[in-house]
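At your convenience, could you comment on the folded chain following this short note?
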Amino acid sequence: MAQRFARRPSFHGVASLTLARLEMSHTDSRVTIHMAASVDGFIARKDGSVDWLETSDEFAAGDTMDPEYVAAFLETIDCYVMGSRTYETALGFEAKGLGWSYGDKPTFVLTHRDLPRTRDSVSFHAGELAPFVNEQLRPRFRSIWFVGGGVLSAECVRRGLADDLRYSILPILIGDGISFFEKLDRDVALHLAEVKAYKSGMVSLHYEVKR
C-alpha cells in the first residue's frame, strides 16, 4: 500500500497564511481613546494637576455606577497606552495610596524620557506611533485603550488609528488647562453610539470614528 504524505505548504503559502492571520487580527482589534474631561474640554490643569476630578453633583434620574459592571467592563480591555505625563500622574496616585488604575494589564508608555518602572506590566516605547500600534499592538490585543494625554490622543486621531472615543464629562468648568486633543489639524466626523448620564452628574459619551 502506498503511503500517503501530507503536503507541506510552500514558503509563500505560509507567508500568505501568516499575513491573513495578521489582517484578521488587525480587523478585529479596536483602538479606543478614553479620557475624563471638564465641561469646557480640559483633561488637566496647565500644571498637569487633576484635583478637580473629585467633583460631583446629584442627578436623580441618572444611572448608578455599579462596581460589578465596572469591574466586568475593565476585564474586556486588553492593554493600555499612555504618554509620560499620564504615567507620572498614575504613579502619583499610587504613591498617595490610591492604587494603580490599570490592574495587571500590559501598559505601554510612549516617551523618550527615562522614567521609573515600578511593575512588570509596564513597558516603554519611543518609536513611531502608527507602526507600533499596527504592527505590535493590533496583532496581540483586541481592545487597546489610549488613556492620555492630549498630544498622544490627537496624534492617534491624526494617524487614523482610533476606532472609538469615550468621553466622560464631569460637571465642572476649570477655565484653562490641557485640552483633550492638542493641536488636532483637521475635522474628524464621529457617530454617536451611546450616551449615559450618572447620578454623580457625569455624562459618558461613546463615539465611533467615521471612516
